[in-house]
Each structure stands twice: as structure tokens, then as C-alpha cells.
Amino acid sequence: MTEPLTGIVRVTRTLKATPQDVFDAWTSADRLQQWLCPGPGTVAEAECDPVVGGRYRIVKLFPDGVDEVTGEYLVVEPPRRLVFTWRAGSTGGHPTQVTVTLRAGGDTTEMTITHERLPSRGFRDRATPIWTEMAGKLETHLAAGR
């Protein structure tokens, strides 16, 4: 019996960047290739059309294989909120949902990533450190752009 798609992961990070710069890093295929992959992997391909109903595709290469993530943008509110589906082999092909919320705070932005409708407790337990790592890679990417 499979668990219902109800698990939630939430990661918050304060970034030294404007909300617009953070939003742009989430919605530019070239920029996604620089940071949206955990561990020793790399993003081989990234395509995105960040409009409501637009699609994205990210192909990640790892030493032990390939992971393709696809989805559709549900909410696009620059520079404060982005909501999209997330479907990958690791989710068993089930569409999950990611919400990125950005809040300005002086010269920083508080970013909260919420990943919901996760397929299992095991996926949730693995997703927390992965999103934490990718938030760190985004922070490094943003710092390098200064």
C-alpha cells in the first residue's frame, strides 16, 4: 500500500540578493543550469517558459545515472512567488508541487521553498537535505554574480 501524497518539506534561507535577482535565478534556464542540482551532479539541459501554463524541463546528470524533472508553472508573480509542479523519476512520476516565496528584507531576501504532495515519508526525508543543499548552491550562485 502506498502512502498518500501529503508529505511536505519546507526550507528557508536568507540570501544577500534582491527578490528580483532570486526570482530571475529560478526562472532563467541558463541560471538554473548553474545551481539546481544536488551533490556531484550537473544540469545538462534546462528549458523553461515561466508563465502560467508554461512548462519546464531539467535534465540532471549524476555518476549513477540521469534524472529528468518536468513540470508546469501554476503561479508566476515576480518577484515574490512562483508555484510549479515537479515530476521526476524520484517522485515515481507523480506530480508534486513546489512553491518559492520571496520576501524582501533590506538588502536581503528571505526565500522559502515548500515542496508538497510528496509520495512517501522516505522521499520527504531525502528531499529536506537536497533542497537545503540546492538553496546553498543558489546562495553561492547569487554571490558569484556580484
What would your notes on this structure say?
This protein has helices spanning 19-27, 29-35, 121-144, and strands at residues 7-15, 42-48, 55-62, 65-77, 81-88, 96-105, 108-118. The protein is of the alpha+beta class and 146 residues long. A 7-stranded antiparallel sheet has the order 1-7-6-5-4-3-2, covered by helices on one side.
Q: Which characteristics define this entry?
A:
single chain; 146 residues; alpha+beta; seven-stranded antiparallel β-sheet; 3 helices; 45% strand
Sheet with the most strands: spatial strand order: 1-7-6-5-4-3-2
Helix content: 25-40%
| Portion in strands | over 45%
Helices, by number, come to 3
Based on secondary structure, the structural category is alpha+beta
Q: What does the average pLDDT come to?
A: 93
Secondary structure: number of strands: 7
The global form is globular
State the distance separating the first and last CA atoms: 50 Å
Question: Main β-sheet: number of strands, strand sense, barrel status?
Answer: 7 strands, antiparallel
Radius of gyration: 14 Å
Seen as an oligomer or otherwise, the chain set is single chain
